[in-house]
Amino acid sequence: MGLLVGTWIDKKLGTEPIFSVIWFSFGVAAGARSIWRTWKSMRADAAREEREQGNPAPLFDAAEEKKREDEEAAKNARWRLDDDHAEERGDASRRDRAGAEDDGESVKERHER
C-alpha cells in the first residue's frame, strides 16, 4: 500500500523514486508492527488459557515411542532368528506356515519346491 502512495506522489511531483522508497519503508514497518502486535496478542492469549485450563499433556512421550520401536525391532529379530533355525533343521519357517495356511498347500509341499 505504501509503495502505491509513494509512486502516486512521485508521479505528481516528478521526484521518482524518493517517495516510493520512503512510503515503501512505511508499509514494511506497518506490516512488521502488525505482525509483532498479533504475535504478542497470541502469546498473551496462550498464557491466559494455560493459567485457566492448565497445560495439556503431551500427545506422546519420546521415551515411550523409542521403547515401543525397540520392542518391535527385538520381536522382529526373534522371528528372523526362529526362521533361520527352522530352516537349518529343515522345518518350515513361520513365513512358510503362514503361506501354507493361506493357499491350502501343505508345509511339506512348500519345502519340496
Secondary structure elements and their pairing?
Layout: H1 2-13, H2 18-53, H3 62-89, H4 94-103, H5 107-112
Strand % is: under 5%
Low-confidence stretches: none
Element string (H = helix, E = strand): HHHHH
Total number of helices: 5
Integer tally of domains: 2
The biggest beta sheet reads: none
For the secondary structure, the number of strands is 0
Structural class: mainly alpha
Rg of Cα set: 35 Å
Shape: elongated
Mean pLDDT across all amino acids: 78
Helix coverage percent of residues? over 70%
Spatial separation of the terminal alpha carbons: 78 Å
Describe this structure in words.
The chain folds into 2 domains: 2-53, no CATH class; 62-112. It is 81% helix and 0% strand. The chain has 5 helices and no strands. α1 (2-13) packs antiparallel against α2. The longest helix has 36 residues, at 18-53. The mean pLDDT is 78.
